[in-house]
Design goal:
The protein is an alpha+beta fold. It folds into three domains: about 95-195, PAS domain (Beta-Lactamase, 2-Layer Sandwich), CATH 3.30.450.20; about 200-270, Helix Hairpins, CATH 1.10.287; about 280-435, Heat Shock Protein 90 (2-Layer Sandwich), CATH 3.30.565. Helices cover about 55% and strands about 20% of the residues. The protein has helices spanning about 1-5, 10-30, 40-95, 115-120, 125, 140-150, 195-235, 240-270, 285-295, 295-300, 320-340, 385-390, 395-405, 430-435; strands at about 100-105, 110, 135, 155-165, 170-180, 185-195, 280-285, 305-310, 315-320, 345-350, 355-360, 410-415, 420-430. It has a six-stranded antiparallel β-sheet with strand order 2-1-6-5-4-3. The protein has a five-stranded mixed β-sheet with strand order 8-10-11-13-12, with helices on one face. Strand 1 and strand 2 form a beta hairpin. It is elongated and about 145 Å long.
Length: about 450
């Protein structure tokens, strides 16, 4: 009731004002005018006639208003439809983003100007071209997977592909593909290719620079390490306690620099796609024990308890030993670094179907909820890690994720801040199906 009154307040006040004014006029006429000589029947007839005229006029106005409203709606709808069709056509044709409409098999039915330019073709030669024959992925199987995904009716979004251009080299693009049914009932797809060639070249150039710099830095680092070790070997009794302390610090700094350079070199190899896995059979238990020995000084310094569990049924696996060592080392060194003194680390592996599950758990500082989505990002460190353990590059878990990806595995984690973190890495036990694809690293 209140809402109706608020919506009709103004017309209601105006109507009441007109009613009171006219009714007051009737009262005044009744008081000051003698109606004894008026023919009552004629007066009633005239009143009824005026009421009929009023009702008919009101009905006419309402009908006219409704007709005008419907006509206005139809006119607006037509104008909008026409303008919308024209707008969409212009957007499709002149958009800077390449758009292609393809059929179920991938043959181009229509392409806008930007798409024709990206393919290096003429407008007349694009129609009928199989777009899938002009696309490449780092892995051939991945392109097949994207095509099957499209044909199954699933959307493909922001997949990096290489586009072969006629006579102009290749371009890099982010591919998105959405399947739908047209007005004739035919299954077709809308394909977009966002050009990222400049960004890709810039990233490759940066990665190549890091790779080159890392290679060049290895030689002077090795020279510094060798010189410091020679000082210790060459009559160490001639050095006083302060000098020995400085040499120890020098060796620690050289070791940190060597680790940092190696990390940058690994990152550049992963990003450039030049890293090739070497698959061979090796003993996983021995690898774990070697890693534990390498980290023993930090573990002993912090008085950590390490509990191991090695599945005896998994004696050997076929994989890249260096990558697996990298994975285990990153997880175990992180657990040792971020676990408080006298804490506990659980380390081991177990068989699960045709895979081996590597598990590293600690009762350390954990990862804050707000940082968990970015934990595998390059150069990212959790806020509590930056605050409590300043020494770190933010490359360890990024390298871990890339190494796991190369080995066709997956990595997951569960964590609670101030309680602890558990990482699980699942890798194939036998990588014989990948062995033929791999070639020695260059």
């Amino acid at each position: 009731m209140n809402s109706w009154f608020s919506q009709n307040k103004k017309p209601l006040i105006q109507s009441l004002g007109v009613f009171l004014l006219m009714f007051g006029a009737v009262i005044l006429i009744t008081i000051y005018y003698d109606f004894s000589q008026i023919d009552v029947g004629a007066l009633l007839f005239l009143t009824a006639f005026l009421c009929c005229v009023f009702v008919a006029k009101n009905t006419f106005d309402m009908s006219q208003a409704n007709d005008m409203s419907e006509e206005l709606k139809k006119s607006v709808a037509v104008d909008l439809a026409v303008s919308s069709d024209e707008l969409y056509v212009q957007l499709y044709k002149n958009s800077p983003v390449p758009y292609l409409i393809i059929d179920f098999e991938g043959h181009v039915k229509s392409a806008n100007i930007a798409a024709v330019r990206m393919l290096g073709e003429k407008q007349t030669s694009v129609n009928g071209l199989n777009i899938f024959s002009r696309l490449r992925c780092d892995e051939l199987e991945h392109l097949d997977f994207l095509v099957e995904k499209y044909r199954s009716g699933l959307a493909v979004s922001d997949e990096m592909v290489r586009v072969e251009k006629v006579g102009h080299g290749d371009a890099w693009a982010l591919l998105s593909l959405f399947a739908f049914t047209d007005f004739a009932g035919e299954r077709i797809g809308l394909l977009t290719l966002v050009d990222i060639t400049k960004q890709k070249k810039a990233e490759d150039a940066k990665s190549e620079f890091v790779s080159l710099a890392s290679h060049q830095l290895r030689t002077p680092i090795a020279g510094m390490k060798w010189s410091a070790e020679l000082l210790l070997m060459d009559n160490p009794n001639s050095l006083n306690a302060r000098q020995l302390k400085y040499i120890d610090r020098l060796l620690i700094s050289i070791k940190r620099m060597a680790v940092l350079v190696d990390d940058f070199l690994r990152v550049s190899r992963f990003e450039l796609g030049t890293f090739q896995a070497e698959y061979k059979k090796f003993n996983l238990t021995e690898l774990f024990k070697d890693v534990m020995e390498e980290q023993s000084s930090r573990v002993q310094q912090k008085k950590l308890t390490v509990k191991t569990f090695f599945d005896e049924s998994v004696s050997e696996i076929v994989s890249d030993q260096n990558l697996v060592r990298m994975i285990v080392t990153n997880l175990y060194s992180n657990a040792a670094k971020y676990t408080r003194e006298e804490g506990t680390i659980h380390l081991g592996f177990a068989r699960k179907d045709d895979n081996v599950v590597i598990t590293v758990a600690d009762n350390g500082m954990g990862i804050p909820v707000g940082d968990q989505d970015e934990i595998f990002s390059k150069l990212f460190r959790a806020s509590n890690a930056v605050r409590n353990v300043p020494d770190g590059t933010g490359l360890g878990l990024y390298i871990l994720r890339e190494a796991v990806s190369v080995l066709r595995g997956n990595v997951t984690f569960t964590t609670t801040e101030n309680v602890g973190t558990t990482f699980e890495v699942v890798l194939p036990l036998e990588a014989s199906d990948l062995k033929d694809e791999a070639s020695p690293e260059v």
